[in-house]
Design brief:
It is built from 7 helices and 5 strands; from the N terminus they run βαβαβαβαβααα. By secondary structure, it is of the alpha/beta class. Helix 1 packs parallel to helix 5. The protein is globular. The termini are far apart. About 40% of the residues are buried.
Length: about 200
């Protein structure tokens, strides 16, 4: 297996899975309140595409912050759902499992709006790529959609609506709350795609 994907079950990672067709996808339950729904969404797309699906469980609830942890955000948080060093943690965990499966490149579904977080920016991806490549196995990290908006990613992926509809974007619950940044982004993206009433 050469190509892996960190698959959260959100619309960006599901669209990237449809576009790039990785050999294996990694979904991580790190203690986030919406883990059950994220895993369910990721399982659905992997089953449809015939992608090997690896679920990694690591309880980091005591380290969480913000909406994803179900507690007030840390004082350093740039936005309400911020969880300290989350992307660095998740990429490392997926890489740890991926190296055993022969993954040579691990993709993340960062898009341009993720730049609100330091770990959603191109310089972060570049530096973590260099760090991972320096280590045994020489794994590479890539973010093929980092210069795109979510709408652009969905369009270029060619993902059908019935598959995109599996996505779970809510940061606060296993069911869409309609009132968090994840739900707003999901709604705005669907509206921009012309699916506002789906």
């Amino acid at each position: 297996m050469s190509l892996g994907l960190l698959l959260s079950g959100g619309m960006d990672s599901i669209a990237l899975a449809w576009w790039k067709r990785p050999n294996v996808a990694f979904t991580i339950d790190y203690g986030q309140v919406c883990a059950e729904a994220e895993i369910r969404a990721a399982e659905a797309v992997c089953s449809d595409l015939g992608i090997r699906h690896e679920i990694i469980q690591v309880d980091c609830r005591s380290l969480g912050s913000g909406d994803l942890a179900g507690i007030p955000a840390d004082s350093n948080a740039p936005v309400q759902e911020w969880w300290p060093y989350r992307n660095q943690l998740l990429i490392t965990l997926a890489g740890m499992r991926g190296i055993a499966l022969g993954v040579k490149e691990l993709m993340v579904a960062a898009v341009i709006s993720d730049a609100v977080h330091a770990d959603g920016r191109p310089d972060f991806v570049d530096r973590l790529d260099a760090l991972m490549h320096l280590q045994e196995g020489g794994m590479r990290l890539s973010a093929p959609a980092i210069s795109m908006a979510s709408v652009e990613l969905v369009k270029i992926s060619g993902i059908p609506l019935q598959v995109l509809a599996w996505a779970h974007s809510c940061h606060r619950s296993n069911y869409a709350c309609g009132d968090c940044r994840g739900c707003y982004k999901h709604r705005d993206t669907m509206d921009a795609l012309g699916y506002g009433a789906y």
